[in-house]
Amino acid sequence: MLRTNEGTLVEMAVQGAVMPPKCYGWEVTQEGTCAILPAVGGITYNVRVGDPAFGWEGDHVEPGVSLTASREHLDANPNRAFNAYACVGNRVRLISGAAAGRWGVVTGRHGGVEHVLVDFPEDVMGRLTMDDKVLIRAWGTGLSLLDAPGIKFFGMSPRLLRRMRVRLRSGGRVEVPVAAVVPPELMGSGVGQNDSFKGDYDIQTQDMGALREHGLDGLRLGDIVALMDQDCRFGFGFRRGAVSIGLIIHCDSRLTGHGPGVQVLMTAGAGSILPRVVTGANIADYLGIGRGRKKRTS
Length: 298
Hints:
It is a single chain. The chain is mostly beta strands. The chain has helices spanning 77-85, 122-125, 158-163, 208-213, 283-287; strands at 12-18, 27-28, 34-35, 43-44, 64-68, 91-94, 103-110, 115-119, 133-138, 152-153, 167-169, 173-178, 180-182, 201-202, 224-231, 237-250, 261-268, 273-277. The chain is globular.
């Protein structure tokens, strides 16, 4: 049984609103062509947690609903707090609009644009507008394991941790079920940034042959993955033997050095995290959201 400090965690309200979609204009792809494609933000009806991360005519597309705390001051502290404190698995309540009173679930945090991503039931999605506001019961920042203090957590609710079937092993190590293992040479955009506490970084997809070799071409939004030799305690970087556990939060990209985004959930030095590849290591199934709503009640 995992013993955590969840009884001491602060539960705090953070409020946000639907973020209108962005258009970046012409962008140069990794093939040297130009494209204008749907990108981040907005309400995305047909891309949900549990869907493939690849194959969409889009760039960094975020599943479900994208939220921000402040549209006018995206670099100000209210938006930083919104991103830093919202944790995957937290409950989200609509407080305005036609679906006011309905609930959703946080599915990730997109760092560069500072969006919090949320999944709502299908009938709620059809009633949302860009004017709608939400209140998130933010709970999970500061989470730790009492018997494995060397493992650092970011943006994970105790609710998600309980459902991930993480097992404590001898010597303060934990075994974590994952959908895939990512080698360090494939980690790209975001390496060197110090915002692992609120952001994400990308798996590079310029070499699809390398992805197929490692079984990464079938990644789904919401998959839990192991990032090998990645120490993300104070930012995103390489350290031999370190392991980080991440969550696929947005779709593929056609830009050089970019690809599916990974939000780090757990990170530690050598020997503390033991990834085990299994089928079904995805938050859609763990939390009964997105494409997993028919399998489990959230």
